[in-house]
Amino acid sequence: MVQILDAPIQNIKYFGPAAVKKLAKLKIKTVRDLLYHFPFRYEDFSNFISIADIKTDCQATAGGKILSAKNINIFRRRMVLTEILIEDGTGEIKSVWFNQPYLLNQFQPGNQINLSGKVVLSKKRLCFSNPAYEITGRDGDSRRQKETLHTGRLVPVYPETYGLTSRWLRLIIKPLLRFVAQIPDPLPKEIKKDNNLPDLNSALSQMHFPETAEKAALAKKRFAFEELFILQLFMGQSRLKLQKQKAPEVPFDEKMAKKFVGALPFELTGDQKKAAWQIIQDMSKNRPMNRLLEGDVGSGKTVVAAMAACLAASNGYQTAFMAPTEILSRQHFEKISPLLNKFNIATGLLTSSEAKIFNDKGEKISKNKFIEKVASGEIKIVIGTHSLIQKNIRFKNLALAIIDEQHRFGVNQRAEILRRPAPQLVPHLLSMSATPIPRTLGLTVWGDLDLSLIKEMPKGRKNIITEIAPPEGRNRIYEFIKTEIKKGRQAFIVCPLIEESKKLSEKLLEAREIKAAKKEQERLQEKIFPEFKIGLLHGRLKPKEKEKIMSEFLDKNLDILVATSVVEVGIDIPNATIMMIEGADRFGLASLHQFRGRVGRGEHQSYCFLLTESPSDKTNRRLKALESAQSGFDLAERDLEIRGPGDFTGVRQAGLPDLAIASLTDAKLVEQTRAAAKEIISRDPNLNAYPLLKTRLAEFRNKIHLE
Ligand code: ADP
Ligand code: MG
């Protein structure tokens, strides 16, 4: 019988082709999927009262016999009113619906009906207005429908996408609930008992048609628990696996460390020193490091990573340093190489458009040559894009993998770099990110990774003055940009695509975004800033063209750079002091903060303007957070509060179930599930005594991409 649950719904007579098609849009393909399609809230229609007791503005359910029913055309207002009169022995009350003339068919006088909803005063008489309704008995038939679906109870409200109404979903889900007894419960008994959780069967029923609000809440808790518990089991198993792995030991070379620090044009901040020391200690062990270096934009993570790479090289080991874009890879290469070359450490750059090694001439070599030099161990530090994880790249002795802007990489790409080295050894992993992951999220989603924080900014950095501006403020900002440019500064103007269309593919959207940015560049050049030079940067440009524009901007041959959202990541232009972001409400706080981080890197005061078209309260709150907070850490916590964890970088991409995502903020539940998972894993790491759990975990592993 379990087959019924997993059968495609088109094989079940009960569903017509139209229903199958609609459900497919919600990714509902089986009866099981339907049963796991949960309401997001309940309408409380459980307050059943006599008509005589009804008062205005109360939310009530009344049941009675239909006395009369009719459609009334109101020509003046081009409206059809469906009006019925019912009575229950204590009194009579009217009910009206607007513009749904077809309802009349259902309202046969003589039938029993329940009405649930709001009661208003109309022409001095009480009246239900657009209530939920349910026929509970037919004229001349003494049988009464025992259980109601739409009225007289806690009524489930489902996310109504693609024209699927809650009413319809209730009708199809209710009869399926009799199959729930056949679904085996993956949660072990003792865990349910210890954590006071209901059985799967009752939880499923209570989730859809709860008897009380408490039971609904408990059911929801159970499913949240289950999702997080599976996630924690998954983490626990991965951790065990990781503990068995061996990494190359990189002993601390103090002399080299001193030489490196001495060669820097600045002094490291306290946080940078601390982070470097933590990394050095990790690398000296024979267990693979799994450390995330979190630091705000401009806090100086690169130099810390470079130091780790330098120490690996001084021990004869190789480092792979991966960055998400070509420009960024190149900038890293250009910064790091001259420094390390002083110590005779050879560096190389590999992107899909070029292969280069650093010597006096910045020699370009063929890709094949490059690959040879990596395999022979001649190039000690290999910097590049995901070109580094191509199949044909072999390292001689990779000891350290550095991933810059780690959230920009897919989890598979991150894993791939660790598979590069000699057999049996796993390199140490240092990930870097400027979008901080709140601690509960980090621990849950990325397991027990170690964190190094750089909270302290290099000396002399000024706060960036940030301002939310309505469209009317635009001209004032243009004037301001003019005065800044006349002082010798430069400005970024970021233009996202304003029109939004879910129907368009990402490619088409990008094309439109570019077109919009181009138009804006032309407009600015002709109408606003005829005296200045304006460049355009977008994602479709060839890497060479991008680099050309970036270097023109860097060399001050351009005054203003109009950009699509590509400008987001890592590049350093110290002379740019203005970041103007059009349509700021279209971006998440993390992205906005990243944009803002493009300025404020030099000695001059910098500014960030957030242009927004009549934003909602929610976006306004978000943007306000940006106005007041300078640190990405504060912002991350705010973002988590305001948007919930689902929008968090990396969380949605990891493919976690919605309920798990929503529960990640529940620190107590996270802790409970963690403890429960830990206990089971320590006793039975392969879950041999829990076959159902094992299956459930295997399914989870297939769906998710965290490893
Ligand atoms: P991010 O953490 O955003 O990757 P970067 O590593 O690109 O930041 O550093 C930003 C800028 O700050 C670079 O130009 C870098 O040379 C400079 N920098 C890094 N550390 C310091 C420091 N301790 N003092 C002064 N400048 C520093
Ligand atoms: Mg960086």
| Rg measurement, Å | 31 Å
Poorly predicted runs are 646-654
Instruction: Give, in spatial order, the strands making up the sheet with the most strands.
Output: 12-11-13-10-14-15-9-16
CATH superfamily of the largest domain: P-loop containing nucleotide triphosphate hydrolases
Shape: globular
Identify the CATH class of the largest domain.
Alpha Beta
Helix content: 25-40%
Mean pLDDT: 85
Bound molecules: adenosine-5'-diphosphate, magnesium ion
Write structural notes for this entry.
This protein is an alpha/beta fold. The chain has five domains: 2-42 and 171-213, no CATH class; 47-152, Nucleic acid-binding proteins (OB fold (Dihydrolipoamide Acetyltransferase, E2P)); 223-244 and 663-703, no CATH class; 254-284 and 300-433, Rossmann fold (3-Layer(aba) Sandwich); 465-629, Rossmann fold (3-Layer(aba) Sandwich), CATH 3.40.50. The protein contains 23 helices and 22 strands. An eight-stranded mixed beta sheet has the order 12-11-13-10-14-15-9-16, with helices on both faces. The protein has a six-stranded parallel beta sheet with strand order 17-22-21-18-20-19, with helices on both faces. The longest helix has 31 residues, at 213-243. It is globular and about 100 Å long. Residues 646-654 have low confidence and may be disordered. The structure holds adenosine-5'-diphosphate (ADP) and magnesium ion. Residues 266, 268-269, 272, 295, 297-303, 434, 458, 572, 601 line the site of adenosine-5'-diphosphate.
